[in-house]
Amino acid sequence: MKKFKRVYIEITNACNLSCGFCPKTKRKGAFMDEALFKRALESIKGISEFVYFHVMGEPLLHPKLGEFLDMCGEYGYKVNLTTNGTMLDKAGTIIGKPALRQVNISLHSNDDSGNKYSEEYLEKIFDFVDKAKSTTLICLRLWNLTDKSEASANGAVISAIKARYSPGAVIEDKPTHVRGIKITENVFVNQSKAFEWPDLSRPDISMDGFCYGLREQVAILVDGTVVPCCLDKDGDLNLGNILNDSLEDILSGPRAKAIYDGFSGKKAVEPLCRKCGYRTRFK
Questions:
Q1: What is the reported pLDDT for 168?
Q2: Burial of residue 160 (number of CB atoms within 10 Å: 0-12, 13-18, 19+)
Q3: What is the pTM of this model?
Q4: How far apart are CA 165 and CA 184, in angstroms?
């Protein structure tokens, strides 16, 4: 099968926050069980070294997160986990897990939920960072910038980061490169503009363009549904289900092939892809 840089596995689509930047999902909240998770790990064997616990939902809500990380370690996968950071004070058991490669903390979640980067929230983040950074990469994300940077709410959190870590690098209220600005060993700040999530109810942005879905990434949703990327919040681009078919057959199916070939010709063949604001970053 084709090799991917990453495979997203949505271990849960449930979340403990309701943020404005997040479009929510129409799917019923659920938690992936151990049998399906094992099937997902087996189905991606040989196609990627990296598993991302992400699509929708807050992975720290999953009661078997620790066990899932151990299973990834047994299979030889490295895991990137994306969290809103509100539960990191309860995440001590995952620190030092061999499979845990990186934790991405969406700091903009807290600001958007109305908490405005409370001292308690940031202290919880910093405590986790200090305990985990010796074994795990940490990325502090502020993906909420607008064209009017002066309107950004990031000043307070940037000041708090500077006060805690005294980084040698300059941190400004503007987009950074992909990996971010290093503030201390294994810890980076990454800022980016807010983007428009794809939604079938929205007008088309463009039919022309490119995407790395099915080239560098593929995603498995909480019920086993396979979709091309991590922005398909409702599973609209259903390519098949690993409970019914092999991942190899799903990825070689007519819908997957049409999406791949379309982007090879710089065309978005699926209605959802034409409405994706994130795709415009790949001009």
A1: 87
A2: middle
A3: 0.93
A4: 7
